[in-house]
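Hi support team,

I submitted a single chain yesterday and got back a structure, but I'm not sure I'm reading the token output correctly. Could someone confirm the output below corresponds to the sequence I sent? I've pasted both exactly as they appear in my results page.

Thanks,
R.
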Amino acid sequence: MTEILTTDALIIIGCALFAMICAWYILRAFDQLWMEEAMRITKLEKLWMEEAMLITKLENRPLTIERPTGEQCPNCFGTGVVRGAASSYTCGECGGLGLIKVDQDYFVDLSDALASALISERRENAELKRINSELQSRSRLGSRID
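Hi R., thanks for writing in. Yes, this is the structure output for that exact sequence:
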């Protein structure tokens, strides 16, 4: 009878040990999942913090649209226009920008740079028109009564 109790006791102890090992592996797996989730949340928090800092930087600086600079297009020599025998047309290599590589890192692609160059040129033209109208009004001959 002692042998039966011993065998039963060994079986019970073995089952308990097996249950403890299984529980340990399950807890370890949950701990690893929890750590991975915590790291993922930490990465997201870091990205959110970086984005918040970038937004703060952008909010605190004045908006300036500047003319893009970079490597000149060898096809149109920086003009953005290729002259044909009968007419001129937009350069196919640079898309009319005159640059094939832009130095500024905030332009997504050359179309962004082209839009920025267009806005810059329009502002410059408006300023030159204003100066021209001031100069024309000063150089007018005759009396002010006329």
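A quick pointer for reading it: The CA atoms of residues 37 and 88 lie 59 Å apart. Let us know if anything else looks off.

Best,
Support desk
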